[in-house]
Design goal:
Keywords: Signal. With 216 residues, this protein is mainly β. The chain is built from one helix and nine strands; from the N terminus they run H-E-E-E-E-E-E-E-E-E. Strand 4 and strand 5 form a beta hairpin.
Length: 216
């Protein structure tokens, strides 16, 4: 069966609610539907770019994959979930540190081995994030040595934040740490799934129209 026929059948099943939101493509060849990748967890990190107030906390619950097929066309982004992050720092120089939370709505996830890239759109408009900096790319590393050796990276601070494109994650530059209260959290768990590498004919994904991302 051609790739296009498989993709059309998958799109019909998705429209009917048979596959659910996280399955990239059904297989008519008798193989089970593709499994999702997952990244979950919660950790305090020490961000090396801010030695004065280094504590950052990232809570992630992301599921899905990097792409899906709709009527024979590859569409980038087939993930869902949320990332919450906290910058523990003073509101004014010399003042007490407080929690400053932000949120990212996930739309992309690629995991391989112990490393995952998660991408999404920042929702914390109250922080005055410019439209061309709303795309956030995050990397998570689950260390085989244990969660105290996990690492994480984010696409601002040490990375040029403007015009980030989906899936272009930085190196995981921040090591896990005990938080400002001395507590270690549970760390990150990365569960990779085989990626749907297409064969045969299909339409490539559209290029992003610009880097503003609007109000996604």
């Amino acid at each position: 069966m051609s790739q296009r026929k498989i993709a059309v059948a998958a799109a019909a099943l998705v429209a009917g609610g048979a596959l659910g939101g996280g399955t990239a493509m059904a297989q008519e060849s008798g193989r089970p539907a593709l499994k999702e990748s997952h990244v979950t967890g919660d950790a305090w990190l020490k961000y090396p770019g801010d030695p004065q107030t280094p504590y950052r906390r990232f809570i992630v619950d992301a599921h899905g994959g990097p792409w899906k097929f709709v009527d024979g066309k590859m569409v980038m982004g087939d993930a869902r979930g949320m990332v919450r992050f906290d910058h523990f720092a003073p509101d004014a120089p010399g003042g007490p540190s407080t929690h400053h939370w932000g949120t990212i709505k996930v739309d992309y996830l690629m995991a391989s081995g112990p490393v995952a890239v998660v991408s999404g759109i920042r929702q914390d408009d109250e922080h005055g994030i410019p439209p061309n900096q709303k795309r956030a790319n995050l990397t998570f590393y689950q260390s085989p040595r244990g969660h105290r050796y996990d690492r994480m990276g984010f696409s601002w601070g040490l990375v040029y934040p403007q015009c980030q494109q989906m899936g272009g994650g930085p190196a995981p530059f921040s090591p896990a740490s005990a938080g400002p209260d001395g507590r270690w959290l549970k760390g990150y768990t990365v569960k990779a799934a085989p990626m749907d590498i297409p064969t045969g004919q299909f339409q490539p994904p559209d290029n992003p129209p610009d880097c503003s991302f609007g109000d996604e």
